[in-house]
Design goal:
The protein is 81% helix and 0% strand. The chain has 317 residues and is an all-alpha fold. It has one domain. Its main location: membrane.
Length: 317
């Protein structure tokens, strides 16, 4: 009974910690500027390691640190104001208007209007998706990844100091590639378990997969800056899964609400910067469960096989 209570408390703590980013975001820049103002030039020089730091003083520090709020707003503007809004305008504005015009033109023949619209709508949707949605989606993925990294680095420097990173460039590249492969396979594993014949069980397993995956996304920036290798990151999540299931729950639920994968991606990109900040601020609850949830083990085995056959020996767990 105590074990179940501890698990539930850890899940609730993770859920509450995931919401901290929405609050911290609005006072982080103020504290950064105050901290910068209080620091002496010599202390700033020791953190920057560049010859021009003494002359430029506070301004580079403020520009670098204050990008947390700026990048978050940019993510919202790109994904919500441009990408999502354009899709809504097309689907809820342009298509209904064109259908209305066709009804006016073929008013005497409703059958002809329906036939023309049945051919016109798929053509317009395909053209819009090919010419606008797909290129903008790919561009936003690239831009978002850069902005996410900028937010994570700024938040980490504010709370922890200078990132440690991994010991060598080759190790860093191998860890990054292997991590991307593991995450892609884990996403596929989550989709696969959602097809379990018993809907409640399949949906629950898929939700747990997405919670852990989104928690990994959010905390990975912090752990990577701390110099943690992938096997350590995954082992930590598996051993303390109640907290990370709770942490990833809000984002997992909100991204599953839209029926469109593209809209779901927009929701993720708008909210994810807040979860990066939350992960950087959070202190995970550990040691509440004696049974690790080894959901990453199957994809690790597959990733090791693929990685070894294509690139070279991977880090084994």
């Amino acid at each position: 009974m105590d074990n179940i209570t501890g698990i539930l408390r850890a899940m609730c703590r993770g859920f509450m910690d995931s919401l901290k980013g929405a609050v911290v975001l609005f006072y982080m820049d103020k504290q950064i500027n105050e901290k910068t103002f209080q620091n002496s030039p010599s202390r700033l020089d020791s953190h920057r390691r560049d010859d021009g730091a003494r002359s430029s003083g506070k301004r580079p520090k403020e520009q670098r640190e204050s990008k947390v709020l700026k990048r978050t707003i940019q993510c919202c503007a790109l994904n919500g104001g441009v990408f999502w809004a354009s899709i809504l305008i097309f689907e809820c504005g342009l298509l209904p208007f064109l259908k209305y015009l066709l009804n006016i033109v073929f008013g005497h023949s409703s059958g002809m209007s329906a036939t023309v619209w049945a051919w016109t709508k798929p053509f317009l949707s395909l053209t819009f998706g090919t010419v606008w949605v797909l290129p903008l989606f790919l561009l936003s993925r690239i831009v978002n990844s850069l902005w996410f990294q900028d937010i994570a680095d700024s938040a980490y420097r504010y709370r922890q100091g200078r990132p440690l990173l991994l010991s060598s460039v080759s190790k860093l590249v191998a860890d990054t590639l292997f991590s991307v492969l593991v995450q892609a396979l884990f996403l596929g594993q989550g989709m696969l378990v959602s097809k379990v014949p018993l809907p409640p069980i399949g949906d629950l397993l898929a939700l747990i997969h997405m919670c852990l995956l989104y928690a990994l996304y959010a905390f990975e920036y912090k752990w990577f800056n701390m110099g943690w290798e992938l096997h350590r990151r995954l082992t930590f999540i598996e051993a303390n899964w109640p907290y990370f299931v709770g942490f990833g729950m809000p984002l997992a639920v909100l991204t599953q609400l839209p029926n469109s994968y593209v809209i779901s991606g927009c929701v993720f990109s708008i909210l994810f910067p807040l979860f990066i900040i939350s992960g950087n601020e959070a202190e995970p609850v550990t040691g509440v469960c004696d049974c690790p949830l080894k959901l990453f083990s199957p994809v690790i085995a597959i990733a090791n096989t693929l990685f070894n056959k294509t690139i070279g020996p991977a880090n084994r767990r």
